[in-house]
């Protein structure tokens, strides 16, 4: 960047600037922007920073954020500088673009931000790239997620990272992150999600997620429904990629949940039939499965890492809003679960630790299956507060309230203002001695977390 151009002075300034661009998470149309070639152009103008270090790439409907965080924590325990890319954030935008379990120094964010703005304001206009030419039918400005993804890669390069752990934003085939050529691709559980963009069936959505499978590179796949599993096997075969199906090569045994996390044994099949006794700080049998997937991915990509390092890294993994306890007594738990299967598992874990009849603070975005989630959650809780998931995503709290009232009108209240709802949940939890769970949306978790930490 030339000396005459303004430079960023803080990471907060950069993230505010990024929000000026079209953003799918905020409901902006992505009809033209859900594509990969635009990101390839941007990365080329930046000198392809995605190639600055070896990478592991994650896609899936559920658990990919947890697996990303766990892999990153293991590599960090090995002494590597790890650039971690996750979404959404809970309390701080830097959670999306971080140095392992911590943040980059602000000087790294600012250096990468200056590079990024130079690309957008100088290099891109000078390149005359057709895909960004506003006079052409497909022309438009770069999007928030395209620029955020490039910003992450620039931070990794500026921060001299040794490894990249990259979570897709949506889908896989056309996701901005799919410009990486990873040591291993990892695909977590597939559910119906983003059907307007990814397809209306499990097989169609799996086809989009399978787009991260690279020629000749191994792919590790979590347990799946049959229709998804067939898609992944066929795609791996077509790409001449080694296909590793977790239930066929490993198992999770001796699971013990406690309020401080989960202890379990990971049994790995192979020449040594190895067994590892491991602990994670997040309660949940599903989190033990995520941890097993993370361990196997690390062993494929970085086989030199010792088992003791793996155990230490898992024990130190920090995963915001994944069964995160923000108040101890009575416990107030935050979880970003927002699909029928995930909220069911979350509620079962919550009740196994704290008993039935607690308090639920719930909301979800407009495109979620609220009726199915209401049916699953109603039996577990004695008090339910329905609200909005914050101002970030469109929602219909009246419809959510109606869905819960169909089977629990006597115990359900609607408090549209999310801050007021969070305060009510916390005060009722304390007054009645009720354990409380906040679920349905990462954006709701962010709002509730901010309220809880101020009290």
On the 0-100 scale, what is the average pLDDT? 92
Structural shape: globular
Low-confidence stretches: none
Helical/strand content category: alpha/beta
Care to describe what's here?
This protein has helices at residues 11-18, 37-45, 64-77, 106-127, 144-158, 195-198, 202-209, 226-238, 246-249, 285-301, 307-315, 340-354, 370-377, 397-408, 418-432, 442-454, and strands at residues 55-59, 82-85, 97-99, 163-167, 184-187, 219-221, 243-245, 250-258, 261-268, 274-280, 324-327, 332-334, 358-362, 381-386, 412-414, 436-439. With 455 residues, it is of the alpha/beta class. The strands form three sheets. Strands 3-2-4-1-5-6-7 form a seven-stranded mixed β-sheet, sandwiched between helices. It has a six-stranded mixed β-sheet with strand order 11-12-16-13-14-15, with helices on both faces. The longest helix has 22 residues, at 106-127.
What are the main properties of this structure?
455 residues, alpha/beta, 7-stranded mixed beta sheet, 6-stranded mixed beta sheet, 16 helices, 16 strands
What's a concise summary of this model?
The protein is 41% helix and 17% strand.
């Amino acid at each position: 960047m030339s000396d005459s151009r303004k430079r960023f002075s803080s990471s907060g300034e950069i993230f505010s600037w990024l929000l000026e661009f079209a953003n799918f998470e905020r409901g902006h149309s992505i009809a033209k922007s859900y594509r990969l070639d635009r990101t390839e152009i941007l990365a080329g103008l930046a000198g392809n920073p995605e190639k600055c270090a070896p990478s592991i790439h994650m896609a899936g409907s559920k658990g990919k954020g947890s697996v990303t965080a766990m892999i990153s924590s293991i590599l960090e325990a090995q002494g590597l500088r790890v650039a971690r890319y996750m979404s959404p954030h809970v309390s701080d935008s830097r959670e999306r673009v971080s140095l392992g379990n911590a943040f980059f120094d602000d000087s790294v964010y600012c250096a990468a931000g200056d590079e990024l703005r130079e690309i957008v304001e100088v290099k891109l206009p000078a390149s005359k790239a057709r895909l960004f030419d506003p006079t052409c039918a497909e022309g438009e400005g770069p999007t928030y997620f395209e620029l955020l993804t490039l910003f992450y890669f620039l931070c990794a390069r500026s921060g001299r990272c040794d490894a990249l752990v990259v979570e897709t934003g949506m889908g896989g085939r056309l996701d901005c992150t799919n410009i990486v050529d990873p040591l291993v691709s990892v695909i977590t559980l597939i559910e119906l999600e983003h059907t307007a963009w990814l397809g209306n069936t499990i097989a169609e959505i799996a086809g989009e997620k399978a787009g991260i499978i690279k020629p000749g590179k191994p792919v590790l796949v979590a347990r799946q429904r049959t229709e998804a599993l067939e898609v992944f096997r066929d795609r791996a075969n077509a790409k001449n990629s080694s296909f590793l199906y977790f239930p066929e090569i490993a198992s999770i045994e001796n699971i013990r949940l406690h309020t401080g996390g989960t202890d379990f044994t990971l049994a790995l099949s192979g020449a040594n039939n190895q067994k590892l006794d491991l602990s994670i700080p997040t309660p949940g049998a599903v989190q033990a499965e995520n941890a097993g997937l993370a361990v196997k991915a690390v062993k494929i990509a970085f086989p030199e890492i010792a088992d003791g390092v793996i155990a230490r890294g898992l024990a130190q993994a920090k995963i915001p809003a994944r069964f995160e306890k923000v108040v101890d007594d009575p416990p107030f738990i935050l979880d970003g679960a927002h699909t029928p299967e995930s909220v069911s598992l979350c509620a079962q874990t919550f009740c196994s630790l704290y008993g039935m009849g607690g308090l639920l603070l719930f909301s979800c975005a407009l495109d979620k299956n609220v009726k199915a989630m209401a049916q699953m959650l109603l039996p577990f809780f004695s008090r339910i507060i329905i609200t909005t998931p914050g101002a970030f995503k469109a929602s219909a709290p009246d419809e959510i309230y109606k869905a819960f009232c169909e089977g629990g009108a006597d115990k359900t209240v609607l408090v549209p203002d999310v801050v007021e709802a969070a305060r009510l949940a916390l005060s009722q939890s304390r007054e009645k001695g009720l354990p409380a769970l906040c679920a349905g949306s990462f954006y709701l978790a962010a709002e509730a977390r901010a309220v809880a930490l101020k009290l």
